[in-house]
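Q: What residues go here?
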């Protein structure tokens, strides 16, 4: 009887640990080998900190590869994407199109892009016809497209309209046109220190170039989080960061 009770208790503990990980840690994190961690002091902060981590395999501990460096996020701070709204506290907003907030959550780092030619894998060289579609009514919402193909009536952002896009990376933010949940999230060159964005993460150009190289040909994810939320994802994040809270 005592042995059976012990077995049941141990089984329950293991099951709870497994379920807790599955509920709080996205599947894409389980196989990620590189992590771009962006934290902000609060959901209303437009200034943040970026740290880079790597690990040899999905079940290994994260190892820091850079010291903390400054970044800018949305001029009104961050808001949780609908995919991560279960992690939001009652006073933290949910992201919508045009809210001038960066999306809190964890996402794959997508393809690198820029103005010049590059040998980076899956690199997109932008030209005068390159746009990112911001119109939820368009089938191309939250995607790169040709300006000629989508037409002038579709809301979009010209990717050669600003020099800040001469180097960047796509954040694979999930498309949710029905809820107008936001679009065209990038990591790119900042305008200047202290200048918030419409929703992207920005940093000095030489650091964007370094980040392109760091992420290329690796399973890289970016986590954008208010500091208060670090403990909510304790099973996913480097323990040195979570433990500092």
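A:
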């Amino acid at each position: 009887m005592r042995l059976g009770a012990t077995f049941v208790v141990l089984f329950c503990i293991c099951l709870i640990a497994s379920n807790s990980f599955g509920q709080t840690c996205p599947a894409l994190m389980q196989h990620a080998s590189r992590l771009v961690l962006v934290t902000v002091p609060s959901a209303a902060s437009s200034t943040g900190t970026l740290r880079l981590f790597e690990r040899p395999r999905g079940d290994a501990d994260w190892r820091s590869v850079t010291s903390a460096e400054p970044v800018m996020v949305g001029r009104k701070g961050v808001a949780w994407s609908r995919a991560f709204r279960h992690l939001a506290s009652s006073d933290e907003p949910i992201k919508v199109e045009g809210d001038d907030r960066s999306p809190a959550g964890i996402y794959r780092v997508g393809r690198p892009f820029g103005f010049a030619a590059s040998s980076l894998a899956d690199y997109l060289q932008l030209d005068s016809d390159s746009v990112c579609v911001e119109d939820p009514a368009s089938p191309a919402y939250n995607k790169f497209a040709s300006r000629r193909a989508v037409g002038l009536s579709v809301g979009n952002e010209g990717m050669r309209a600003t020099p800040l896009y001469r180097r960047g990376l796509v954040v694979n933010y999930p498309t949710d046109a029905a809820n107008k949940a936001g679009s065209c999230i990038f990591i790119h060159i900042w305008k200047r220190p202290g200048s918030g964005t419409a929703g992207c993460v920005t940093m000095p150009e030489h650091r964007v170039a370094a980040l392109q190289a760091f992420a290329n040909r690796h399973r890289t994810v970016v986590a954008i989080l208010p500091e208060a939320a670090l403990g909510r994802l304790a099973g996913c994040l480097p323990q040195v960061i979570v433990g500092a809270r």
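A: Context that may help when evaluating the design: Residues 1-23 have pLDDT under 50 and may be disordered. The first strand starts at residue 34 and ends at 40.
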